[in-house]
Amino acid sequence: MNLAVKDIRHNLGRFLLTSLGIGMLLMIVMGMVGIYRGLIQDATLLIDRIGADIWVVQLNTKGPFAEVSRVPKSLLDRVAVVPGVREAREFVYHTIQREKDGRSLRMGVLGLSWPTDKGQWLPLIAGRPIGQSHFEMIADRKLGLHIGDRLELGHDVYTVVGITEGMVTSGGDGLAFFTVNDAQAVQFHVPGEAVRLERAARAERAATSDIGYTQPSVLSKAAGPSSAIPALGPPQLSAVIASLQPGTDYSSIKAIIGGWSDVSVYARDEQRQFMLKGTVEMAKKQIGLFTVLLTVISAIIMALILYTLTMEKVHDIALLKLIGAPNHVILSMILEQAFLLGAFGFGLAYAFGGRVFPNFPRRVILLNDDLVLLAVIVGLISLLSSILGIWKALQIDPNEALSG
Q: Among 248, 294, 197, 240, which residue's Cα sits nearest to residue 71?
């Protein structure tokens, strides 16, 4: 009979409890790796989904996902006429936090370049794309909104017409999609009293300047809406994105747009790298450190458990040696117990993780390659953990079986 299996049956409760503890540790390790994969997908989700070939952003910035970027609306027309550009679109992105029904609602706001972009590319699970230029929005399911819900943002009320799934920001917050004009209205909204005070301040500055004395009509414009003052331009965009015609060389586009003194231009892969090296890099280091620590802790615990099990079998091992059992029989028993402990722990981790991870607030993605690598690591841990028990077994004197 297999000695390892017989010993496990004799101590079944302890073996199962130990496997459960190892499984919980391995589940956390598995979850850490999955969270890291989820961070990568969340960080690059919009860049990949939008599918733009180039991103034109404020000079010397890395784009709207990495830092604040402001470009004028006139940039859209400049990019659209560059040879090789098939389509240019406006892009507005920012994050807001509001209250709805007594709960905090934090969302990423993305402006769609209406009417070119109505959100047809979004993974809708209910509703429809945006059908008019104002007062409609598409929300991700994570925001807890439903079709027909009305959300007051600034001076306006927006109706939810579509629901997406899996569209989140790099921070894990749900995304909401508006037209560019509505997204800017939300972004640059100020209270009515602040508007009144700003208009009064503009009128006072105009009245005390030379132009106020020579052109009294300027005073009435200064006290009116900002849109009526030619010197004040419309709200700025976060970026201009563009798709290239088939066969167009990116380097030629970069040479043209990169020569403009007010903007920087990046390819899609460059935008992805900015996200991965910025937002994800620090999280990667932290998660990696925790993963290594938990792996080492798992190895130490397994080594101590196997050593303890070996110490409890000192008399049995001595008796086996006394009757002439070769060392490889004893060593194989300890090794088999170590591998069975690791295998049961890994199986429990995978089973529990499959039920627990979908309920995490952040996306957890388990790739087959990661699971195979983790299984190999668990095998190595099992092998290394058995060394202490094997060493103790080799030190046992067969005469100890006669000591009672």
A: 240
Residues 6+ apart with CB under 8 A from 250: 53, 54, 244, 267
Return the number of other C-beta atoms located less than 10 Å from residue 80's C-beta: 14
Tens digits of per-residue pLDDT, 352-367? 998 999 888 888 989 9
- Rg for the chain, CA atoms, rounded: 32
Element (H, E) at 107: strand 103-112
Q: How many CB atoms lie within 10 A of CB 295?
A: 19
Distance of CA 242 to the CA centre of its chain: 25
Reply yes or no on whether the pLDDT at 263 is more than 70: yes
CA distance 355 to 366: 13
Q: What is the pLDDT of residues 131-146, one digit of tens each?
A: 999 999 999 999 999 9
User: Is 111 in contact with 180 (CB distance < 8 Å)?
Assistant: yes
pTM above 0.85, yes or no: no
- 58 pLDDT more than 90: yes
Contacting residues for 224 by C-beta, under 8 A, at least 6 apart? 199
Checking phi first, is residue 166 left (phi over 0); if not, alpha (psi -120 to 50) or beta?
left
- Cβ-based neighbour number of residue 86 at 10 Å: 12
Q: In terms of DSSP H, where are the helices of 51-122? A: 75-80
Distances (CA, A) of 323 to 173, 174, 393: 67, 69, 15
Residues 6+ apart with CB under 8 A from 216: none
φ, ψ of residue 159 to 5 degrees: the values are: -105, 130
Total number of residues shown for the chain: 404
Sign of the four-CA dihedral 42, 46, 49, 54 = negative
Element holding 281 (H helix, E strand): helix 268-312
First to last CA, the chain: 25
φ, ψ at 340 (rounded to 5°): -65, -40
In terms of pLDDT, which residue wins out, 305 or 247?
A: 247
Dihedral-angle region of residue 232 (phi above 0 means left; psi in -120 to 50 means alpha; beta otherwise) = beta
One-character DSSP codes across 308-322: HHHHHTHHHHHHHHH
Angle at 88 between CA 85 and CA 267, to 5 degrees: 65
Contacts of residue 387, defined as CB under 8 A and 6 or more positions apart, other chains included, come to: 303
Q: Both tokens of residue 159?
A: 């109706």
